[in-house]
Amino acid sequence: MRLAAKATGGLGCLLAVVLLGGCGEARVGSPATAATGVKRASNQAVDPKPGEGVVGSATNGSPDSTKEAADPLEADSYPAPASVKHVSAATPSKAGEAIVAAGAPSNAEIRSELAQMRAVQSSDSRAHKLDLTPVPGGESVGGAGIIPIPTGVPEVVQKVIAGANEIADFPYVYGGGHASFVDNAYDCSGSVSYALAAGGLLGAPETSGELEHWGVPGPGRYITVLANAGHTYMYVDGILYDTAGRSGVYASRWQVAPTNNAGYVVRHWPGL
Predict the structure, then answer these.
(1) Are residues 114 and 236 in contact, defined by beta-carbon separation less than 8 angstroms?
(2) Which residue of 80, 122, 132, 234 has the fewest CB atoms within a 10 Å radius of its CB?
(3) What ranges make up the beta strands (E) of the chain?
(4) What would the pLDDT profile of 97-108 be if each residue is shown by its tens digit?
């Protein structure tokens, strides 16, 4: 009887191989088979059309997909006390409209000129060119806490900068910006998620652990996201955008000096 059972099982497996191409534990809709867009298991990313958002893994139906691991740099982010009240942010798409360069070049136009643009000065020289001065007590840029939106970059990048500017001086609260993009305080991943969404590069808030899989591996020409299980930040056109290292509760997330990138996964958006 055992032999007959084994034979029957073997025949069933053979039939599965013929019909389905396998006899393992694969299920329809499993992460290995259902991933699409820039989050495919093979890391074969698809470059979206300008303005198209991409729904991140935070919308995959998992009830705890937006939970954040403990942020090891929370103490360096000037977490706001419960008494601090701040107005809510606009939606990321609304914030992304605050760009100054109408008729900016499209992604396709920018890509066609990349060969020439590689001769341009390195990205971190932008911070030096802007002559950013930190606020005492940290590395936050002074003044209004925002950075000017450059004209010689793709419109998507302009919108990301505009989104980052929108919440640059909002308080840090652990978990802020996770339930919704519209909030009155943002933690590290909430901050990065909001700015990326303003450029149409994210469709839902993601945790720092989820941002480890955003886009494709490696640094970008304009936008580089660095993430691990507990913390995330990014460089946009060479300027650091990070909650850790700020100069106060209402100090800017834009910072003058780069930080130590060791221990982080490096990601970028295809073409950016």
Answers:
(1) no
(2) 122
(3) 216-217, 223-227, 232-236, 239-241, 254-255, 265-268
(4) 766 554 556 665
Quote the tokens at residue 128.
């030096």
Are residues 24 and 83 located together in one domain of the fold?
no
Q: Read off the pLDDT band of 127 (50, 70, 90).
A: low
Pairing relation of β-strands 239-241 and 254-255? antiparallel
DSSP assigned state of 153: S
Domains identified in the chain, total number: 2
- Return d(Cα 182, Cα 170) in angstroms, integer: 12
Query: Cβ–Cβ contacts within 10 Å for residue 218, how many?
Result: 9
* 165 and 196 both lie in a single domain: yes
Contacts of 259-265 with C-beta under 8 Å, sequence gap 24+, read 259/233, 261/226, 263/228, 264/226, 264/227, 264/228, 264/231, 264/232, 265/212, 265/217, 265/226, 265/227, 265/228
103 φ, ψ to 5°? 75, 30
Distance CA 154, CA 172 (A): 29
Same domain, 18 and 93: no
The overall pTM is greater than 0.85: no
Give residue 231's domain range: 48-268
Q: Give the Cα separation of 143 and 133 in Å (integer).
A: 9
Q: What's the CA gap between 252 and 87, in Å, rounded? A: 16
* DSSP H stretches of helix in 150-263: 155-166, 188-198, 208-211
Go through 153-181 and write b for each residue having 16 or more CB atoms within 10 A of its CB, e for each that does not: bbbbbbbbbbbbbbbbbbbbbbbbbbeeb
Token readout for 19 is: 């019909």
